[in-house]
Specification:
Blueprint: H1 22-58, H2 71-107, H3 110-123, H4 128-154, H5 171-195, H6 199-207, H7 212-241, H8 244-249, E1 252-253, E2 265-266, H9 269-276, H10 283-312
Parallel strand pairs: 1-2
Length: 320
């Protein structure tokens, strides 16, 4: 009886390589090129801002209209106004956004929650110029008596120091308008994060005798903390770059002041560019572009922090 000779390994049938369909190939290439295009556009914007800012950074301050002592003296009040107004908006909008998101996700009936969700999404689509018109036409005149009362009764506190603005167009009014603008974005993000809380975590807390609020405090809010932070950072990024609403509400000056209710208010970088660019010429255009570069770096830092927070979020499931 003859022994069977083993077949060489090379002669064994190898699994056939799956054929790549044309649609998959086109989609993968389009996704790759789209992702690369974003980086190219971002790099092009950065190169443009840096190249156009160099003449302003190297020019003699005497060449500028208004003659700022230095670029730092010119841009610092604008940076302060940008950060101050955005911080006011964030402080006012974040607690309200969390409360609305919790009401929609855990308290409201289903039909009411759906209607409120649609309303929040619609508010995010309102143009900023509409918010600006609302701020100067409705909010400022209505809130001015409140400002007068605050100055009369709490003027000893530095934030509420007088003299009070007679029109109500103050940095606090601008902060309220910005807070209303960023509220829909932050609410939508918080709502989606709260809805992703594992049901087993919520049911376990309720089974241990926790009330609904205790369940939210122990299960929902810890799970949604990274989403809350990222939503707050994204809202802050929008508030930092807002132009028309702030330009329409404020009567800005080149000052650094924490007073909320006075008629003299610091301006923001975006509003200053929008108001000054039509009349700028020569090196003054480069000066405005240099302030735009500062705003670009600030917003880039804010969005990078938000992305870092999102990436640190751990994966949760109903089993853990």
């Amino acid at each position: 009886m003859t022994a069977t000779t083993p077949r060489p390994a090379s002669a064994e049938a190898l699994p056939a390589k799956p054929a790549i369909r044309l649609g998959d190939l086109l989609f993968s290439r389009a996704a790759l090129w789209s992702g690369g295009l974003i980086l190219v556009i971002l790099a092009a914007v950065a190169i443009f801002l840096v190249a156009q800012s160099i003449p302003a950074l190297t020019a003699d301050p005497a060449d500028f209209v208004g003659q700022p002592a230095s670029f730092l003296d010119y841009v610092w009040p604008l940076v302060f106004g940008t950060l101050w107004s955005a911080a006011l908006a964030l402080v006012m909008a974040l607690p309200l956004a969390i409360g609305i998101a919790l009401f929609i996700s855990h308290y409201a009936p289903r039909k009411l929650a759906q209607a409120l969700g649609y309303l929040v999404d619609l508010l995010a689509a309102v143009p900023s110029v509409v918010y600006g018109l609302w701020g100067i036409g409705v909010l400022a005149p209505a809130i001015q008596p409140v400002y007068s009362w605050l100055v009369d009764n709490a003027g000893w506190f530095p934030l509420f120091a007088g003299p009070v603005s007679g029109t109500g167009r103050t940095i606090l009014t601008a902060g309220i308008v910005l807070g209303v603008m960023i509220l829909p974005v932050m609410t939508a993000i918080c709502r989606e994060v709260f809805l992703q809380t594992p049901v087993l975590h919520e049911e376990a807390a309720l089974a241990l005798g926790a009330t609904r609020w205790e369940m939210i405090r122990m299960a929902v809010l810890p799970f949604g903390r990274p989403g809350i932070i990222s939503g707050a950072m994204l809202g802050l990024g929008r508030a930092l770059g807002e132009t028309m609403a702030v330009a329409m509400v404020l009567s800005p000056q080149a000052i650094v002041s924490f007073a909320l209710l006075q008629s003299a208010n610091p301006s923001t970088i975006a509003a200053n560019i929008a108001l000054s660019f039509p009349e700028a010429y020569g090196v003054n255009v480069n000066l405005l572009i240099a302030t735009g570069l500062v705003l670009f770096l600030i917003t880039l830092a804010v969005n990078s922090i938000a992305r870092y927070v999102v990436n640190r979020r751990k994966d949760f499931s109903g089993a853990n």
